Each structure stands twice: as structure tokens, then as C-alpha cells.
Amino acid sequence: MPSKHERRRHPRINQELPFNVLANGYDLTTTTKNISCLGAYCHLDKYIPPFTKISIRMALPLLSRDKKEQAKVECGGVIVRAEDAVSGGFNVAIFFNNIKESQKQKISRYIQQILSLQSVAQV
Hints:
By secondary structure, the chain is of the alpha+beta class. It has one helix at about 100-120, and strands spanning about 15, 20-25, 25-35, 40-45, 55-65, 65-85, 90-100.
């Protein structure tokens, strides 16, 4: 369940995850700054203009019956915002516009897992 301050329908968490962006013939490796099942925010060294369609690949570390597994997620997205970063490169917001429900569920499961761990840590 989202916190009192989280107004989004789908929770977004600040989490660094390995993330591949394929766009215009480039395969860029980065990490997310935050993620929800609808999109992600990350830093890229190369400028990709807004409205560019991209492909995304990531692996989510999920706990399953007390074992860790890497759940692979692949989907399509579109750059919705690209801003110059103070440290160089670009901060990019991505909307997952072409994602299967099964892929969305993996991301949602990962987010719920992190939120559960955070709530336990706060007790």
C-alpha cells in the first residue's frame, strides 16, 4: 500500500537496479534511480530525445520460497523527459508503454518485496 505521501496509483521506489536501454542502435547500460511498474527514472551518458521509442531489459532480484532468483523483464518504453545532469549526462524519465501484464507483475512483486522490507526495518 502506498505511503500517505505517495499519490501515485502504482508505488514508485527509490532503488538502483541494473537496466539496459536499447535505442537508435545503442545498447546503454545504466541503473535506475527509481522504478514503478509503469516506468523508471535513470541516468544515461547519451542524449535520447523525448518521444523516442526504446526497448528495456532488466533483471529483478526476487525472493521466492526463501531463494533468490533473477526475474528477467523486457518491455518497450518511450522517453518522456530528458534533462541535463549536473554531473554530466542526462537524467531520463521512461514510461513503459509496451509491457505485458506478466512483466508488469514481476516489477510490482519486486516493489512490494522492497516496501515490505522497508516497513519491517522501520519497526
